[in-house]
């Protein structure tokens, strides 16, 4: 630590040599993976500045210096091996991360959504939604030969009983999210969704990663997208919405609404950055998300997976969905809520019939489940807070599908009415990689 603060002192001296005339009028875009950002006080900057939020300059040593709009030095890019004494082995100080909030989340096992969207057609005709363009075939590296990951022979440390969110676990969740092994809503806590994602990643890659080894996790993040946190500036469009005041529970009241959109800026941003809404608020104490120009701290997720999915496996026991490419290699894995004892999911193999984005939902008590006292057919408008969220992937078995959810933090912790429920962002990612005819295998 003494050498670290010595380095910080050197950096501060170097910063004092920045010439005002050297200020560039180009924004700072991407941090090089072999560098770290050091503040004038000698600390590692705990986030990646949002694109365009700072300008760049050069000191007399040729290093990149970040300057904010007021002319203040934010940080300087320094080679990691200079700061830490060895290449690509980051020993981050305790104050690297934002405050670690506690609590939050939910384990309400009685919650369930599901059903069949059909935009007004009781007979469940075509949704008449444009089919997404498939991304190029670029499956993830590794070879699982189409098998479903199983629990490894060693025991992964379990933190499921802990209610405290930690930035170290957030870093692990961000890493898994970038790799295509979704941990669900990122909340800084080690739970079953994170453990399942880690197990699948380890079986695919043949590597092991200790959840408690933050140094190793940070090293991997530095080589693939940078730090786990970054800043985001709330835009006028973000603040404006439109938003709805609240989402009623009763389906008849939902049917009377024009849209089942987001209820707040925080809910929208949480889904945008794959986060638990309470966690987003906790790491931004005192921030007014409704004011355009407000700078907030968010997790630095990746660009998502791409490729052409040829086979999907819905593992009911693991509560996890696996997407495989044409070569049999695993592209992505997602935590899921799959059926219940009262309304089980199908068994065997079915196929994808069609895909609809932002679908409406038709509730029919004679075909669907019984919701409250509703005994009539109801046409419920679309929106991220609709019963099936932002996506509906219809399956060849009538009334069943893969879809999103209005409650992403409950995925994998609750049951569904027979369908496969994912977070909205995971369902959207999967929907963009599938087409009619893709097989979906339900395993116990």
Automatic annotation (TrEMBL):
<dbReference type="GO" id="GO:0005576">
    <property type="term" value="C:extracellular region"/>
</dbReference>
<dbReference type="InterPro" id="IPR050979">
    <property type="entry name" value="LD-transpeptidase"/>
</dbReference>
<comment type="similarity">
    <text>Belongs to the YkuD family.</text>
</comment>
<dbReference type="InterPro" id="IPR036366">
    <property type="entry name" value="PGBDSf"/>
</dbReference>
<dbReference type="GO" id="GO:0071555">
    <property type="term" value="P:cell wall organization"/>
</dbReference>
<feature type="active site" description="Nucleophile">
    <location>
        <position position="419"/>
    </location>
</feature>
<dbReference type="GO" id="GO:0008360">
    <property type="term" value="P:regulation of cell shape"/>
</dbReference>
<keyword id="KW-0732">Signal</keyword>
<protein>
    <recommendedName>
        <fullName>L,D-TPase catalytic domain-containing protein</fullName>
    </recommendedName>
</protein>
<dbReference type="InterPro" id="IPR005490">
    <property type="entry name" value="LD_TPept_cat_dom"/>
</dbReference>
<dbReference type="GO" id="GO:0016740">
    <property type="term" value="F:transferase activity"/>
</dbReference>
<dbReference type="InterPro" id="IPR036365">
    <property type="entry name" value="PGBD-like_sf"/>
</dbReference>
<dbReference type="Pfam" id="PF03734">
    <property type="entry name" value="YkuD"/>
</dbReference>
<feature type="signal peptide">
    <location>
        <begin position="1"/>
        <end position="24"/>
    </location>
</feature>
<keyword id="KW-0808">Transferase</keyword>
<keyword id="KW-0961">Cell wall biogenesis/degradation</keyword>
<feature type="compositionally biased region" description="Low complexity">
    <location>
        <begin position="153"/>
        <end position="163"/>
    </location>
</feature>
<keyword id="KW-0133">Cell shape</keyword>
<keyword id="KW-0573">Peptidoglycan synthesis</keyword>
<comment type="pathway">
    <text>Cell wall biogenesis; peptidoglycan biosynthesis.</text>
</comment>
<dbReference type="GO" id="GO:0018104">
    <property type="term" value="P:peptidoglycan-protein cross-linking"/>
</dbReference>
<feature type="region of interest" description="Disordered">
    <location>
        <begin position="88"/>
        <end position="164"/>
    </location>
</feature>
<dbReference type="GO" id="GO:0071972">
    <property type="term" value="F:peptidoglycan L,D-transpeptidase activity"/>
</dbReference>
<feature type="domain" description="L,D-TPase catalytic">
    <location>
        <begin position="310"/>
        <end position="443"/>
    </location>
</feature>
<dbReference type="InterPro" id="IPR038063">
    <property type="entry name" value="Transpep_catalytic_dom"/>
</dbReference>
<feature type="active site" description="Proton donor/acceptor">
    <location>
        <position position="403"/>
    </location>
</feature>
